[in-house]
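Quick start: read one record
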Amino acid sequence: MKPRKKAKLLALIPIMFFSVSGGPYGLEEIVASVGPLCTLMLITLIPLVWTIPECLIVAELSSNYPVQGGYYRWVYMGLGRFWGFMEGWWSILYTIIDLSLYPILFTAYLKFFFPDLSFIQFYIIQLTVIWISALFNILGIRTVGYVLGLFTSFILISFLFFIVFGMKYLSFDFSPILNARNHLTGNNVLYGLSLAFWNFIGWDNSSTVLDEVHNPNHNYRRSMFINVPIIVFFYFFTLIVALSINTSWGNWTFGEFSRISIIMGHPVLAVVLTIGGMAMCLGLFNSLMLSSTRIFSTMADDNLLPSMFSKIHNKFQTPYIAIIFVSVLYSFLVLVDFKNLVVYDVFLYLIAISLEAIALIILRKKIPEDGLHFQIPFGKTGFWLSIVMLFACIILVTIANAVSIISPLKGTVFGLLLAFSGVPAYFFFLNRRKIPLIIKKVSK
């Protein structure tokens, strides 16, 4: 079998960029929900109270345990087989919700150019998106990284032009923004909070491919620390410009930045941003397919899923059966409306990341500090501050999710059913032979 070709830092950066963001697309719905002031406050505060603690926790885990399967294996090592399975199961559920949205959103942007396409034509295009992405993923992480690198450059350059062209419209009279409180109903604020977090979660997603990354115990955290300021910069300045140009904030919808470009008198930029939206959908789909299929293959290695998912392509060294399986699954799921499930997506992610934090607490006791490649700075104070801030955000957003859904009781019951659906699945696989978990020891 040929040795696996590993992705270097430049390929990992766009993969992680699309694991978390994909650009400012999607912020429009937050503005429509909570108004401009709360939106700006959220995208300024969340990086401080959530992104930094999460990134530091993931940085310590990825640097000291650079194993294939990432967060699933970290929880397995720290909390045991059952919770490792639940971690993997929850990640499969929330990526099913996520990934089913992006081919649909791709065709939503395509309507800008071809509004009269039929349902069958749109479905064929969605299938094309899914299976081209499957091909990229079968070819390997470096192919995915290079393709996503092109998409990242295109999207960021497009929004850089948006910011530059929009600067002349920038108003320094912020009183309309400060006084815009007409959207501050309880449910809107809570739903907006969930949407805002949705635009900042996912820093651990790419950890599932750590064994396919060159020098993973350094490059993974470098990629995170490079992406954080890029994402925050483009979120903040894109919104500052857009809010000054179109003040009908309650009417903002997905794709608003293209419409604002037309208001500015730049129809070509509107077209470019629309194409960028399509690139965003492709990028997110490819990145999440990459990370989610490694969960399938790694759990299959541990006899926690059917063994067929662990089969590796002889030439490309990728879990091609898992990739084909999820592609078939999404070919059907794009026919289902998952748009209202974003609340459950965030909920499942948050309970999964909470297990990673608990696993870190346990794993820290197993390795002396002088044996660590990286640890959260400022000693025990920095460590526990990061943990506490992470759990405070998890509790806050979980409450927001429970209250903001249309029917809190039914929604809570459905969320709990999703969360505990892995229990019968775990016992179904319990009688399989347990394969010892081998952790690769990496030199400092």
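Residues 435-444 have pLDDT under 50 and may be disordered.
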